[in-house]
Amino acid sequence: MPLPASNTCFNTTLPSPFKDLPSTSSPTTLLLPRNKKTSSSNIITSSLQTIHFPKQYHPTSTSTPTTTVPTPIKTTSTTTTTTPSRETNPLSSTNQPLPQKWNFLQKAAATALDLVETALVSHERKHPLPKTADPRVQIAGNFAPVPEHAVDQGLPVVGKIPKCIDGVYVRNGANPLYEPVAGHHFFDGDGMVHAVKFTNGSASYACRFTETQRLTQEKSLGRPVFPKAIGELHGHSGIARLLLFYARGLFGLVDGSHGMGVANAGLVYFNNHLLAMSEDDLPYHVRITPNGDLTTVGRYDFNGQLNSTMIAHPKLDPVDGDLHALSYDVIQKPYLKYFRFSPNGVKSPDVEIPLKEPTMMHDFAITENFVVVPDQQVVFKLTEMITGGSPVVYDKNKTSRFGILHKNAKDANAMRWIDAPDCFCFHLWNAWEEPETEEVVVIGSCMTPADSIFNECDESLKSVLSEIRLNLRTGQSTRRPIISDAEQVNLEAGMVNRNKLGRKTQFAYLALAEPWPKVSGFAKVDLLSGEVKKYMYGEEKFGGEPLFLPNGQEEDDGYILAFVHDEKEWKSELQIVNAQNLKLEASIKLPSRVPYGFHGTFIHSKDLRKQA
């Protein structure tokens, strides 16, 4: 929302976040409220001025863009950042636009539509961006992108890498190749996989973009052209961006028919395929080379069996080897489908799950016999864009519920729905059955406000690790926090021992998401007693999802792997922590900065040798 006219306007020339790039933009106009002191908490500094995005098209603006300083976030995590050393991008010299084989009509259409985009960007720059779509917030500091990094072998190791760690740790993340032209949410970035390969006590590192259809076309054009689902698709300008994209498609300038996803969220190794996923597309098959590098094989439809999107958190049953998944659609019915794959990759028929409206389902859970589907209060209402709003909406009049469906169900007729009021879990860590009480127990982090990740909100985010009990006999649910009020912390991103997924587990390893949205360490939580043991990464060090790598029969026998970034020294490392005593076993010094990211997995060397 623009500031009121009573605000005093100061024409202040700010350093451009992209000063190393040619730009025709005018100096930024900074609006400060009248009669309010400016303190360090009102300043959001960004590392973007030293990030080398490839040279690209910049829509020219004939008017001075007007930007307000975003309302300071209620933590220190994005109000001050460390400026990194200069990072060069090897793509910048090779990623120039390729000659397009367009006919006269296409060339004329391209020119006209570029002018339309220029006018649209000029209009957008007259209005302040919310924090949830402001690149200065969303990709500041170590959330900023990095260039690809070829394999570096024989990395320095402090301590000793445990012998059982033999294979490759891969982690996905959002890493925009191009400078955002308008709004940008952290979730919008292009997918990049970071890989640390372990061989006989030594380690290598590499990171590569997942070459999605979207990224391939944008590299060909030398600029971003696909709409960003969260950062750009708001209100009337979001509608205009969709129309602009469809117009380019109509003239054959871009092609969205082969997927528009970014493949930046999840990773799973299944049936000898490493799959990179985001819920807006099919998975992408990524291959790990013998020397630890990464190559994109292509968009993966399970040999023609999958013709719809697949969410980024499929569940691999550790007992029978089946892979369970959901697919949701925000435009047309069926809004939700469930399916599974046998260990050799044969897909089951879709089970259509009837929903009244399209609902965000980033995650779900499995038990020994059931899939547990959350139908919660964050929904998609595209009509909100017509009135100037966001299509991602918190529906306070809707009652959250969980659906329980047998894994081998042929249809959803026997699906049991149990209400769980005011419950929104972005992630579910595990679930299991307790036959003696006829209950399904679900472990998840309940987040409030439910839509705070997507829409600007004054209320501080809370993520409470919770036990939700769904009684199949009474149809009732109960919910309780697992951790006492005195020890309550935000816990988001993590896992249980994956060898026990869908069965009763004692421990969960979860990111300490404080100060939000940074991660200062991880917690080992006893789900039965509520006891919390914390491992902190160190002063001015932050990380992401802790990956638990099992190494024995005891549930907590294994190691935690986590990328950690030192914001003072501006260096990154991979820490290996003993999961039983929370002692640091080894630290691998990385040759490149690793941005904060999303989810990962570990592939043992014996499985790597069988890669497709």
Tally of separate helices: 5
Radius of gyration, whole Å: 24 Å
The residue ranges in which pLDDT falls below 50 over 5 or more consecutive positions are 1-52, 54-86, 89-94
Q: In percent, how helical is the residue content?
A: under 10%
Beta-strand percentage?
Answer: 25-35%
- Please state the average pLDDT score: 81
Largest sheet: 6 strands, antiparallel
Q: What report would you give on this structure?
A:
With 612 residues, the chain is mainly beta. It has a domain at 102-146 and 160-300. The protein has 5 helices and 36 strands. Strands 5, 31, 32, 33, 34 and 35 form a 6-stranded antiparallel sheet that branches. A 5-stranded antiparallel sheet has the order 4-8-7-6-36. Helix 1 packs antiparallel against helix 4. The N and C termini lie far apart (51 Å). GO terms for molecular function: 9-cis-epoxycarotenoid dioxygenase activity; metal ion binding. InterPro entries: Carotenoid_Oase (IPR004294). One of its GO terms (biological process) is abscisic acid biosynthetic process. Residues 1-37, 55-98 are annotated as: Disordered. Its cofactor is Fe(2+).
